[in-house]
Amino acid sequence: MKLEKAESRVCAAKLVVVVAIFLLTFYVISQVFEIKMDANLGHIFARSALDAAARSTKPPRYKCGISKACPEKHFAFKMASGAANVVGPKICVEDNVLMSGVKNNVGRGINVALVNGKTGEPLDTKFFDMWGGDVAPFIEFLKSIQDGTIVLMGTYDDGATKLNEEARKLIAELGSTSITNLGFRDNWVFCGGKGIKTKSPFEQHIKNNKDTNKYEGWPEVVEMEGCIPQKQD
Question: TM spans, by residue (predicted)?
Fold first, then answer.
């Protein structure tokens, strides 16, 4: 009888030890899990705070990617000439890419985009080959432009070889100053308008010079951005 009681006490003690070990193990695991949860939550909150800070400090994007916002009643524009005879020019107005190699609507010569001076809506895009083409269609196109139209032009490869005095005069009447000096494989971008009363401030021109050319046979790309005043009635 005494032996049975001793064995019962031993079994009870073992049970107590097992339960105690189980409870201790459960407590340790729960504490570790809680610590990990706290760490994970802390990491999540820290990342959220960093993301929010990054968003708040990220510089704003303006139309066409220009460096600052245009004032009211102005149209944002950005343009670039072609790069050698490899990458075509790009013309963007009011965040609308009008001409580019991606759109597959540019070509060798002078690339032209027409925009409504009152609304900023695109009217037409064309390119005229001034190396192997004929200047006559270009002259007719220039003559057909309506008063109040914004005219943007950019060269690609060569925009001057076939230009004659009549074509240069018509472009000068749009506000260009550099068109009289535009030569073989020069890079040039220009923004003017039909009926403009003064010379346009929006024009960039780099001469083709073998001593300073960035590319073999061509100067570097010229870029330009700005804000075009809306035509008022």
Answer: 12-30
